[in-house]
Task: structure prediction
Amino acid sequence: MTGGPTEQWAFAEGNATITQVAGDYVTYGVVAAPAPRALSGLPEAPAALVGRDGPVEELLGVLGPAGPAGPAGARVDAGPGGARVAVVAGLAGVGKSALAVATAHRAVELGWFGDRVFFLALRGYAPNGAVSGPQAVQEMLRHLGIRDTDMPASPEARLHLYRAELAARAQAGERVLIVADDAGSVAQVRDLVPAQDAHRLLVTSRHRLVAPGFSARIVALDELAADAAAELLAGALLRTWPEDPRPERDPGALAEIADHCGRLPLALTVAGALLAGDPGLPAGELARQLSGARTRLATLHIGEEGDGDVPVGVRAAFDLSYARLPADQARLLRLLTVVPGPDCATAYAHLLTRGSMPRPDGPPEELAAVRASLAALVRASMLIEQPVGSGRWRMHDLVRLYARERGEEQAGQDGREGVIDALLASLAFDAAVACHALGVDGRAASGPGLPSVAQALQWLDGERPMLVAAVGFAAAAGRPDITVELAGRLAPYLALYGHAPDAVVVAHHVLEVGRESGDRTDVGAALYNLGMAHLDAWQMAEASALLGEALVLFREVPEPLGEARSLNLLGSLYTRERRWEEAREAHEQALEIFRAQGIRHAEATALVNLAHVLKQSGRVDEAVEACEQAHRLLKETGDDHRAATAQGVLGDVLWEAGRREESLAVREEALAALRELGHRAAVAWLLNGIGASLTDGAAGPGDERLDAAQARYEEALALFVEVGNRHGEGAVLGNLGRLHRLAGRLEEALESQRQGCDLLAATGDRDNEAVAVQGMALTLLELNRPAEAAGAFERAAALHGAVGNAGHESAVRAVAAQLRAMPAAPAGPVAPAGPAAPAESEAPATPGAPPPRRWWDRFRD
Result:
C-alpha cells in the first residue's frame, strides 16, 4: 500500500496489453481498435479524509484554472514560471495517495477538467520493477485514445506524440489532469510534465522529487494531528460496525492507540481493521498490545501468506522505502536510533558516522557532507528537519522502531556498541564542560576554551531531552558507570534551573543502578537526590519517604556528610509543611555537622534554610544575620548561583525586618546576577516577590507602586510560560488577581485568580492554593456574589485544614458560615460582620512571596 488505494497487479500474455480503468485492470489485444479511453479514470475516493484541509487547499491552488479564482476560491500559481506540477511527498503510509485522489475528485466536482482525468500507478517502490518514464508516456497515449497499431515505435516519437496530443487539447480549450501515483524518481514523471499552462500533473512519492529542470510544488505530508488521528480510527471502525460501542465507550483508549500508531494513517487503518476484525476486542487491550515498542510493528500487521489475504502492515511498507536507500544512508538511518531523545543535531550525526565530533576549527566540508546525507534521508521521507534550517533531525516513531530493528540486525557490521560508547562519553564530556562554564558545580568557571554562560545554557536547554533520555538509555544498556557520571553532571543544572520532572527521571535511573551495585553509600546518595527532585516537584509524600530512608541509611553506614545533607533537605520539607520546630532542629543539626566537617559551602546552605524558619518564628534579626553570613560564605567559595539566590532571600528577610528600601536594592542586585546567569525561573520568582512587596506597600487605586508591581508580575508570568513552570504561573496569576482587586479591576481580578487557582491545584501546592482561593473569595464579595464567595471560603478553609493550619481554617470557615446565613444581599459590596477572614498578606506562604522551595530549598550540598 502507499497510504491510499491498495496496489493491484495484473499480467498480460502474448501480445496483449494492460490498462487501468476506474481502478481495475483490463486486458485487451493489440488488434483492438479503437483503444479504450480511461476518462475520469480515478480510483474511488477515500471514505473520509480527515485532518488534511490545508494540503487539499494547497493542491487545489495548483490544480485550479489560471486567472480569476475558481469555483472553490482557489487560484492557481501557474502561468509563466508558475507550477504545473505538484508532488505530494511523505513517509510510506502517511496518506499521499488518499490525499491526491480525494483532491482530484474534488477538482472534477468543480468542473475544472471535465472527464479528462487520468490515473497512472507507477509502482515506484515495487520490488519487481517500476513503470519507466517511457512506459508511463506510452500508457498515457493509450488513455488518450491512441491505438497500439498507431503507436510510434521509438520512445522519442511516442513522447512527441504525447506532447502533441496535450497541445491539441489545450488549443481546443480542454484541461487535462494526470495523477501519477507512487513515483520513485523524477525519471518516471519528467516526460509526463505538460508543456501547456492549462494542464496539470499531480504526483505522489515517498521522495521529495527535486532535480535540475524539474519544477514542482512540493507538498510535504506529515502525520496527522492527535484529534484527526483519533477521528480517523473511530471512523474506520464505525464504517464497519455502525453500532460499535467502543469509540464512545473508551475514547481514551482510541487516543492511546492513535498515539502508539504515531498518528500515521496506514498504521491507524491497520489498527482499525484489527478492531473491526474482532468486535469483542476491547480498545484498551489493543492499546496495551501496541504499548510494547519491541512488538509494535509486528502487531500492526494483517494477513499472512497462505491464508488468502494480502499481507498489509507498516513494516512491509517501510521495507520498500528502506530497500531503496544507498548503503551509507541506510547505515546512517540505523545508527541514528542509538541517539536517545526526540531528535539529533547534525554534530552528533557526524559522531555516529565519523567516530568523533566535528572540530570547531575543522573544514566546513566536514559537516556539510553529513548534512547532505541527512538531507537525502529527508528527501526519502525517512527523516524531517524540524524546524527547517535548525540542524535538528527527527524520525517518526514507527520509522525509529523499524530502523532500530534493522540496526540491531546489523549491529556488528555497523559497530553499533562502539558508537553507543562514543556517544555517551561525548555527552558526558560536553555536559561537564557546559555545567562548569555555568558554574553550577559550585566552583567559579575557569579554564581555556570554555563556552560563555549563554552558549552553555543554550546547549544544555537544547539538548536537555536527549541528555535526560541518555541517562535511561545508558542504564538500560548495562552501562552503570556512564549512567552515574552523566546523571551527576546534569543534576545541579536540572535542580538550579527548575527542571524538576527531568531531575526525577534522572534520579530514578541512578537509584536503580545504586540498588543493583549494593553499595549502601551509593544507595543513600541516590535516595537523597531522588528525594530532592521529588521535593522540587512538590511530591511531598515521595520526598518524605525517600529522605527518611536516606537519613537512616547514612546514620547506619555511618556517613556524616550524607546525614547532614538529608537533615538539611528534610528541614526544607518540614518548612513546607509548616512544622517549624522540626524544621529548625533539622537545619541546626545539619549546620553543626557541616561546620564540624569544615564544609563552608554546605554551611551556607543550612544557614539560608534556617533563616526562613527564624523569620517565621519572629526572629527576624537573626534571620538577617544568617542570610548575610551565608551570602559571604557563598561568595568566598565562588558559588555565584547560590550566592545570588541567597541575596534574594536576604532581600525578602530585610523586607520583613522593615528595611524596605534596602530590601528592594538588595533584590535588584540579586536580580541582575540571576539574569546574567540565565536563571529564567529564578528571575521569575524574584520578580514575583518584588511585585508582591510593591503591592503590599501600595495605598490603593492610583498608587504608582501598583503599576510597578504589575510590570514585575507580567514579566515573571512571561518567563514562567516560557520555561513551562505551571506552578509559577499559578502563583503570579494569583498575585495579579490581588493587584487587580486593589486597583478596582474586579472582573480582571476574578479571571486571573481563577486561572491561578486551577494551576496551583494541578501542582499540588495546597498551601498557596488556599491563599489564592481565599483571595478569589474576597473578590467575589466585592462583586456582590456572596453565595459564590461562601463556596470559595469553604474551599479555602478545607485547604488550610489539609496543610495543618487550624487557625486559618477556623476563621475562614466562620466567615463562610456567616455568608450562608445572611439574607439576600442588597446591591453593592458585602461586608460580613463578625470574625474576619485572614487577609491574604497574613496567610502562610502567600503567593506574594516566593514559595520556600524556590529560595530556601535550593540550598543543599
